[in-house]
Amino acid sequence: MRIGELSRRTGVNAHQLRYYEAQGLLEADRGANGYRDYDESAVVRVKQIRHLLDAGLSTEDIAFLLPCAVGETPELLGCPELLAGMRSRLRRIDDQMDRLARSRSALVDYIDAAERVGAEHYPPFDSSEPVSA
After folding, report:
1. φ, ψ for residue 24 (rounded to 5)?
2. What are 106-124's pLDDT values in tens digits?
3. Could you confirm whether domain 1-77 is CATH 1.10.1660.10?
4. Pairing of strands 36-37, 69-70
């Protein structure tokens, strides 16, 4: 099938399909006319890619995991490469969450301190009073 039909059947834009191919996630044969020609398995492959992207995985992660993927959802077989890749991604997510929690905590502390200092130096703000410029 050509890229337009694959796009229609999967709901994924043609430019995204070309990107998946460039990332090594999707393969196409080339006809004598230069057009991409995908086999039936490409439909399942694209659906796998979309599900894995929706899970927050990068295309680099997905390239690593796809050999262990079965079915559209996909179900991932517990091969060692897959588990190592998923654990690595989980560690990165945990690190990001830790950084965000620290940033949030620091911001809350700054707000609290600013409110304390502001209460000492400024009259209470009445939002019903017009602000003069």
Report:
1. 80, 15
2. 999 999 999 888 777 776 6
3. yes
4. unpaired
